[in-house]
Amino acid sequence: MIAIVVLAFSGIALTVVSEGGILNPPHIPLTDLQENINLGDDTIQIFHIGGEAIDLSAINIILSANGKRTEFNSSEFKVKNLDGSNSTDDVLMIGDCIVINTTGKEVNLMGGDAIDMFIVHTPSEQVIQKTVLQTDSEELPEWITPYPYGSVYSNSTNGGWQNMELVGAADDGLFTNIQVPKKAWVYEEYEFGVKAYRMDTSNPLKLVQLKIIYGLHDDNSKIQTLSIYNGSAWTQLTPVPECHDFDECNNNTLFDITPYVKTTDELEKLQVMFSVKGNSNNEKKYLNVDFIGIHVES
Question: Model-level pTM greater than 0.85?
């Protein structure tokens, strides 16, 4: 009798475990997402830049600010394909973008409050990603970097969207590592996501400086250009010194870009492109960028 009872309980336990118990928990997708705020139309974009696909019916997106909370499910946001067309399936894949319109919602992007965003996997009730979309109104930092509100992109074969923290600080052991193919131009493009209305700035800007710390593999990758875009025109900065390591570059790559970025509007639209051409037949050449930042005085 004792043996029968033990076997019966074992069977029950096996049934519970095999039907969604501890041995088979809901799978949480491992995904790299990048967020951006567009104040022009009160939208938030969430880009899928790597990792597994996400079942959109299995996530909720929560915005939280100043004690207020707004929640969005898949019926309350749009999804764009890489080519900008509307997605017709219920899956977020690499290159897709979620677009959330916050007009009329409790959380106001223009309210000046710190906003936290949570992407929640509903079957497991776990947070896939937590992001600080914006902080409280603040003074100008010494250096404005792409992290955490901008973006870093490379056209290299091992490039694509890069982790913004790689270029967010000097001498932190983090840097981009982009392959430079033979006889080809490779670039990294940076956006800073400046929200001038949140910072202590006024027009005209007194001083705007650009600093970049980088290292090239060797002399065979020595042709490089540095260009900036202020919302109306691209301007190439010259000369750009050759740096083969970060220490060599540290004190030689500070550029005064005030003549091209005179207003807060131009500052908000600022983009920087750093490009290198490989001259060697050896394809194993690399571009490493340790830091890029903007210093502003107004």
Answer: no
